[in-house]
Amino acid sequence: MRPPIAALVVLLLVVAALTVIGLGGVHAERVPQAVLNGEQQIAADTAQSVRTAIDVEASTVRRTANAYPATSASTPTTALQALTSARKAVLGKALLDPRTGKLLAAGGRPVPLAGVDVVQAASGHGAVPPRLVTSGGTRQLLYFARVTLPALQEDANQDQFQAPSRPDRQWLLVVCETLPALTTYGDGRSAEVLDARGTALATTSDGAASPAVTDSGLPAAAARAANGSGRDTDASGSMLGAATGSRRTVAGWAQVASATGPGDTDNLGLVVLTSRAVPTTTAAADYSRFALEAAGALAGLALLLGLVLHFFVQRPLLRLYLSAGRLARGATEDGPGAFEELFRPVPVHGFGELARIGRALESLRLQLLGESGPQELPARRGPGYRALAVVGVVVVACWAVPMIFMLNRADTATAVPVPVLADQQARTQVAANRIRQSLDQSYTDLSDVAAGLPGRSRAAQTEVLRHTLADHKQYRSLYLLDRSGGITLRVGDTPLRTLVHVPDGGGITTVNTSGRIPAIAAYAQVRAVKGKAPAAGVVLFGEIDVKALNSVLPRPKLGSVWVTNDENKVLAASVGYRAFQSLPDSGLTRLARATQGAPGAAGTATSAALRTSSGASVDAAAPLAQSGPTARLGWHVVTAEPAAALQIPAVQAEQRTMLAGILGLTLGAACLGWLHVVVIRPLRAVAVLVERLAGGDRRTVLHPVNHDEVGSVTRSLELMRQALAERDRAARSGHTARPSRSLREQTLQR
Questions:
Q1: pLDDT-derived band of residue 155, with 50, 70 and 90 as boundaries?
Q2: Among candidate residues 39, 49, 48, 38, the one with its CA nearest the CA of residue 218
Q3: Is residue 256 a part of any domain in this protein?
């Protein structure tokens, strides 16, 4: 009986203390933590874009080198020209002998190889990672790739190469390029790529020049923080910069390094720094007083419930337990002292079940004394202890329900700071740009493949498509269409297309309008070559695996991400979805429609704070592309981050208020339910049995179920039943008898 009551009081006091601690720690800062976190994530997204661009460029250089059809007649000059002729961003290029580092051929600007140990770099068996070098006072990237060709023996007297005389050997291709271009979003935001010393290698800004650019201490601080976290991770962080009037600079930094294992960017030591001046918060928000008032009210309720249960349940039950034991001793033990126990009346305490049991015990006492016979007790009236438990739950609910549903409710329209909305919009634009780059790269790769198909035999074309499918994991199927739309050559999985048509030109499209999986495909024309065998088809299609596209979407603290078509139907998502379904909330659909521009225009990004069925969220939508092969599709990227995941004071106060209410109601109901199970329900059963016993039922054996106060009362009642039954038998036989000691011992053991 005591543990449920003590637990109820203690746990409610703990909830009161947690309410003070939780709500008392919510304060409105000059720059909300959510703004700092948002800038950190923008820096991380920008760093990922830079990392992806470098990785793609490095893999493209290697793939081109691996696909080069070297022969014994190939010379360094012709090979270098063939390997780099299609690359417009190349500043300088060179072919080197990896064994000696000797320059075999060069083109464009001189390749800055000073400080690069070519022999050591090419000595390993894996891919040679890019290097960051200085040329003409600017920092540039060197990409390396091995070119395998038949062994060539150089004639000492002639500047030519003759037939092979040794096993295959390699050349080392070196391509020099500038750093990938930075793209920033958000008016007034600047972005910089820093080296390990904090020197800016590339800078860009969106909109008006930001005061953050003049905060010269931020780059050095970002470089120190990045160096302190190691060079082979994708660590990120945020900082506060200088204040100018009512605005303060917020900066985020992130390493350009792989988080999943060794990568091409790990040893470059590059750091991305983004910064923006945001208005500071002047409105104070302090929930300490509310926390104290709410905690005081709950503490008062806890003590009140504890006192009520102590005086109306615990004390009456203990007195009843003592009275039942006293009567059992008087009924079963010998001696004048034991018999005198029967002369003391049984006090009736409490109400409900305890009062019923007390009245029945008094009747049994009189029957044991022989002063009265069995008597029918009146039917119970009025509420019992179950009603008391229900009232206790209602009392706790009177405190908890307002905490859950009414108090400290955040106004979605004003609780989310404007910079947080701007950050969500900027991150959505970054996500759209990342998806666009992925789709554009798929189209570019497919166009390169389509350009190499004319003039080849069917078997050679099949081999090219197989190599392409193996090298480009984003494709699930590659196939050629003839002029009637029929598939003439296919590698990979069965196509998902339901639309049979032969489009002109090239780009990105969807080739189905229903089904379980959206079929997004890149396509390019296969040009006929005069004088050569015709191609097996006129259009090359590459269906993009939607799983590969879905894997590009998730980003930390961005929430759910959806890619929708021009009818706002979902094509890809970072969360579970059905193909071509609508967005999960009508507010998101309206937000996506708000980004749509005039006919033929791409539209503009937008953001808003919405309250949906799942709670408040910070949402944004952006067109997928302003230009390129995906611009005419009219697709959008929509994101929704729950406001509960952001460190916004008003939202935090709402969350913690609701949590306190839920905890108080749950623990209060659990403890009172525990009391009902172990005390109230057994008391109801004992009340029925003792009233039957007082009414003359001597055959029903009373078995104690629990080893507690109620169980002790039940054992005492069983002893009294046996004594009364033995007396009745003796009366029928004309003798007066009392229960034997052996019978009493058997009862106690049972």
A1: very low
A2: 39
A3: yes
Contact 718, 697 (CB under 8 A): no
| 271 to 260, 323, 619, 630: CA distances (angstroms) | 18, 81, 28, 30
Q: Phi, psi at residue 241, to the nearest 5°?
A: -105, -155
Residues 687, 588 share a domain:
no
**pLDDT tens-digit map of 205-236:** 876 544 444 567 899 999 999 888 876 677 89
Q: 203 and 168, same structural domain?
A: no
Q: For the chain, how many helices (H) and strands (E)?
A: 19, 22
pLDDT grade, residue 536 (50/70/90)?
low
Strands 247-255 and 539-544: unpaired
Total residues belonging to the chain: 750
Residue with tokens 């985020």: 252
Helix-helix angle 458-471:418-451, to 10 degrees:
160
- Of the chain, the end-to-end C-alpha distance in Å amounts to 22
* Cβ–Cβ under 8 Å, residues 106 and 77: no
Distance CA 725, CA 696 (A): 9
Same domain, 550 and 628: yes
Task: Provide the 3-class DSSP secondary structure of residue 263.
Answer: coil
Which of these, 350, 268, 311, 309, lies nearest to 687 by C-alpha position? 350
What number of other Cβ atoms are within 10 A of residue 357's Cβ?
30
CA distance 496 to 571: 14
Contact 748, 718 (CB under 8 A): no
pLDDT tens across 107-117, in order? 989 999 888 88
Give the pair of three-digit tokens for residue 151: 């062994």
pLDDT at 158 over 70: no
Q: What is the dihedral of CA 578, 582, 586, 587, to 10 degrees?
A: 80
Same domain, yes or no: 400 and 434: no
What does pLDDT average to over the chain? Answer: 85
Cα torsion angle, 683, 685, 689, 694, sign = positive
Residue 352 belongs to a domain:
yes
Instruction: Tell me the pTM.
Output: 0.78
Give Cα separations from 303 to 6, 196, 213, 392 (angstroms): 10, 61, 59, 12
Q: What is the DSSP string of 384-430?
A: -HHHHHHHHHHHHHHHHHHHHHTTT---HHHHS-HHHHHHHHHHHHH
Which string of DSSP letters, residue by residue, matches 546-587? HHHHHHHS--TT--EEEEE-TTSBEEEESS---TTPBPSSHH
Residue 227, by phi and psi: left (phi above 0), alpha (psi -120 to 50) or beta? alpha
C-alpha 145/C-alpha 483 separation (Å) is 39
Which residues are 640's β-sheet partners? 560, 619
HEC sequence for 14-63 = HHHHHHHHHHHCCECCCCCHHHHHHHHHHHHHHHHHHHHHHHHHHHHHHH
Cα–Cα distance list, 738 to 77, 690, 721 (Å): 123, 21, 12
Tell me which residue has tokens 């004071």. 649
User: Which H helix or E strand runs over 332?
Assistant: helix 315-332
C-alpha neighbours within 13 Å on the C-beta side of residue 387: 7
Q: Which residue has the tokens 């994991």?
A: 473
Give the domain CATH number at 423. 3.30.450.20
